[in-house]
Amino acid sequence: MTSKASSPFNRALERLVPRVDRALDRLLPRATQEPRTLHRAVRYSVFAGGKRLRPALCLLACESVGGRVGDAVPSAAALEMIHTFSLIHDDLPGMDDDDWRRGRRSNHVVFGEGTAILAGDALLNLAFQTLARAPLGRIRDPRVLWETVGDATGTNGMIGGQALDLLYEGKRVSLARVLAMHRRKTGALLRASLRLGALIGGASPARLRAFHAYGERIGLAFQITDDLLNVRASRRQTGKSVGSDRRKGKATAASRGGVAASERLAARLLAEAHALTPRLGRREAEFASLTETLLHRTR
Amino acid sequence: MTSKASSPFNRALERLVPRVDRALDRLLPRATQEPRTLHRAVRYSVFAGGKRLRPALCLLACESVGGRVGDAVPSAAALEMIHTFSLIHDDLPGMDDDDWRRGRRSNHVVFGEGTAILAGDALLNLAFQTLARAPLGRIRDPRVLWETVGDATGTNGMIGGQALDLLYEGKRVSLARVLAMHRRKTGALLRASLRLGALIGGASPARLRAFHAYGERIGLAFQITDDLLNVRASRRQTGKSVGSDRRKGKATAASRGGVAASERLAARLLAEAHALTPRLGRREAEFASLTETLLHRTR
Questions:
Q1: Lowest CB count within 10 Å: A20, B80, B176, B230, which one?
Q2: pLDDT digits over A129-146, tens only?
Q3: Is pLDDT of B102 > 90?
Q4: Is B208 buried (19+), middle (13-18) or exposed (0-12) by CB count in 10 A?
Q5: What is the DSSP letter of A279?
Q6: Are A225 and A199 in contact (CB under 8 A)?
Q7: Which CATH class is domain A8-297?
Q8: Which portions of chain A are predicted below pLDDT 70?
């Protein structure tokens, strides 16, 4: 998301991200509230320059099917809390052991391991507290919110994907398994973000299926291009240590299938996603523009 | 909870705990399901001989106000998941660094730190997934379930209490602050367990207030007696390392107010709790018996 400041997707980000940021600021406990260190740690990682991709997808999906974006803002903020929880825990010494994140010191480097673990726990819990108080838009049963997010986050989704990622480190793993791991680790929450927004906006079952198919492809392509960046780019570009995946023997599409094959796979997934955008409703142009932005990243 | 196998509270445990254990077995992912290490780690700590105090309080409160115990079983299981999540994370090297729990090796000692962090995360998430699918009994709006549990678990409750516990280690802290920390760390979830069961059972506002007052007192007394056991008992009795709180400079009522004063405080709280039991409904005898069991622990 580095280029083309004037693309439809980037204009949508400029319009929507401030609403997400204001909601996060309102929903997170003040840094002056006890325990202050914990609340400072939570805010440090939530306001660390994240792109807000998941909340943006949620809000765009809601708008795209004719819903009111305001109805989806608290749920979108909850998705960013879950994403941030996963980043804090993934960076811990007992997990990926990364000292840098988005060009800043990782949470545990600044606040210590104990507080970083608790800051992640607090964000996961706060996400569900937020969903318990969020507007429902056109959803009738509030339990749909929790099930959608809980399933994407749990051992069949993000948390399970991270466990597989740990397990595969330094092992010979097929490309198919790497992709199945990415589907859980990154794909599940991206798909849930679209689904949640679409549900709040009142999407038809056919529209929900189109969002699912689109989310499946951009989720996978996003992770593949992220891994390609780790292979090639400088820390200035990614905010992380260059080549850290390789040093750790991380199972990535690039390491298991080769860089060129990864690029081709990402391009194919993004072309498929692009072809789906006419079925996504009013924000078709923004969703098409996102696939182009991601394609640009692979080059 | 070591003595008087025939007390009303212990007979209630014998009757109710198997239902909780069966629900946990049904609700937790199979150990044969991928990622297997993660699911084995989750089950290792959930089935490690816990007393199931929180689920038992939830089910007794439901029965006590005339509710159907079956309606409260999944919610009771969710409470045990949250309790187990907190134990796994508290034992981590970056937190309390305990290698033993309930007489067995801690989760991270057996499965490694990364998996232990994820097992805790998975249990917190699964608790909310469970609450999203739990029967409501006499609750009308399912969001009441989530708010009750989310508030007790978050930075105003258990997670915030653990952050204060870390912060107070090795520091001079007043007894009042120690008690305020215990109210969050242990008290909040115990109170929420009673409240949840009472709500599912259809308790009146007056009954809910009585449960709150009773839970407040047994929660605090429970933590004080737990800390006294850590000072005096053998590992065989507690399943943890003896005197570990003292070695770490943990802020406890015993360390900040003295052992004798702690015993008196616990006895006073339990006497107050006992006096409240006639207002708790049909399971008055069981709730009274619990206060006696806890009182026995202080001696």
A1: B176
A2: 999 999 999 999 999 999
A3: no
A4: middle
A5: G
A6: no
A7: mainly alpha
A8: 1-5, 233-242, 298-299
**What's the pLDDT tens digit per position in A211-241?**
999 999 999 999 999 888 888 765 555 566 6
d(C-alpha A91, C-alpha B121), whole Å: 14
Short-list A272, A290, A137, CA closest to A203: A137
* B88 neighbors B120 (Cβ within 8 angstroms): yes
Distance CA A245, CA A163 (A): 16
The domain ranges of chain B are 8-297
Alpha carbon of residue A98 to chain centroid:
18
Residues A80 and A251: their CA atoms lie apart, in Å, by 25
d(C-alpha A208, C-alpha A199), whole Å: 8
> Smallest CA–CA separation between B14 and chain A, in Å?
31
Residue A113, min C-alpha distance to chain B (Å): 5
With CA atoms as reference, the chain A residue closest to B28 would be A155
Chain A residues with beta carbon closer than 8 angstroms to that of B35: 155, 160, 163-164, 167
Structure tokens at A261: 């094959």
pTM of the model: 0.95
Looking at chain B from residue 117 to 136, which residues have their Cβ under 8 Å from any Cβ of chain A?
117-118, 120-122, 124-126, 128-129, 131-133
Backbone angles phi, psi at A186, to 5 degrees: -110, -40
Q: What is the DSSP string of B22-38?
A: HHHHHHSPPTTSSSHHH
Exposed, middle or buried by CB within 10 Å (0-12, 13-18, 19+), for B236? exposed
Instruction: Give the other-Cβ count within 10 Å of A36's Cβ.
Output: 14
Q: What token pair was written down for A39?
A: 């609340």
Answer yes or no: do B124 and A120 touch at CB < 8 A.
Answer: no
State ipTM: 0.95
Q: Is A177 exposed, middle or buried (0-12, 13-18, 19+ CB in 10 A)?
A: middle
Cβ distance A119 to A107 under 8 Å?
yes
**Residues β-bridged to residue A104:** A101
Angle at B148 between CA B204 and CA B30, to 5 degrees: 120
Closest CA to A246 of A238, A257, A255: A255
Q: Are B265 and B182 in contact (CB under 8 A)?
A: no
| B113–A132 CB contact, under 8 Å | no
Find the radius of gyration of the CA atoms of chain A.
18
Please give the full DSSP string across B69-114, using - where no structure is assigned: HHHHHHHHHHHHHHHHHHHHHHHSTTTT--SEETTEE-HHHHH-HH
Give pLDDT tens digits for B110-166.
999 999 999 999 999 999 999 999 999 999 999 999 999 999 999 999 999 999 999
CA B49 to chain centre: 13
